[in-house]
Amino acid sequence: MLILSEINIYPVKSLGGISLQNSEVTDRGLKYDRRWLIINEEEKFITQRTHPQLALIKTKISGNKLILGHKTKEVSPLVIPIHHESVETVLVTIWHDLVEARIVGKYADEWLSEALDIKCRLVYMHDETLRFVDRTYAAENEIVGFADAYPFMMIGQSSLDDLNNRLKEKLPMNRFRPNFVFTGGEAFEEDKWKKIRVGEVTFSVVKPCSRCVTTTVNQDTAEKNEEPLKTLSTYRSVDNKIYFGQNLLHEGTGILKVGDEIEILEWK
């Protein structure tokens, strides 16, 4: 039996994630997932690829507030209203997209700039902003928040177990920052799926997830290493890209819960 074992959201792209027991699937992904983004002085997005210290910022949602803290520095938490009153907007660049976002506020910019030791700003994707998924894989003009390209990413626990059996030091799942983790099935079984149902929501498995240097960043210390990319490159590389996990698109909305059964509707 295939069982949904983890649900994770990452409210601010490339900062710490939040593990949930249940979550709402909205039009652009899990509720609150990657709706905030850190940008540099050129209004371009920044991530752990170039700034591994982002891993040290932890996130929490309490009521109608997003709360940021630092894992190693003794600083007061940053408290951000989820429902933004700010109407000041800026055009931000994320990969090949130019997206309108709302500026959270000077207080947030100052807190993050000090915590990360870089000059940066925090922005929010409001509901009126529509960022479309790559039309090569989209079916119904699906939209996405500030995730790299797709609203969801799923990995099987068996796939991580297979990798860890090849590594000298085992790695936790948070290196790969998935939205969904499932138990049961063989290693990389998710590669064979085309359409699945989880709880009350149907998903299309549209594209394997290519992995970058963020996977080499320890999410507790921000230290970088050569693994897991070194080992993954020996058996999960296609056309000079390393794949681990699958990107998903969804049909409709609904509630997902840890413990939901995964039903395979169509195989590749």
Q: How many individual helices?
A: 3
Distance between the termini: 19 Å
Number of β-strand runs: 19
Tell me the overall shape.
Answer: globular
Order of helices and strands: EEEEEEEEEEHEEHEEEHEEEE
- Average pLDDT number: 96
The residue fraction in helices comes out at: under 10%
Q: What class, by secondary structure content?
A: mainly beta
Low-confidence stretches: none
Rg, nearest Å: 18 Å
Instruction: Give a quick account of the main beta sheet: strands, pairing sense, barrel closure.
Output: 9 strands, mixed
How much of the residues is beta strand, in percent? 35-45%
Explain how this protein is built.
By secondary structure, this protein is mainly beta. The chain contains three helices and 19 strands. Strands 1, 2, 12, 13, 14, 15, 16, 17 and 19 form a nine-stranded mixed sheet that branches. Strand 14 and strand 15 form a beta hairpin. The longest helix is centred in the middle third of the chain and has 11 residues. It is globular. It starts with a strand and ends with a strand.
Q: Key terms for this structure?
A:
9-stranded mixed β-sheet, 19 strands, 268 residues, 4-stranded antiparallel β-sheet, 9% helix, 38% strand
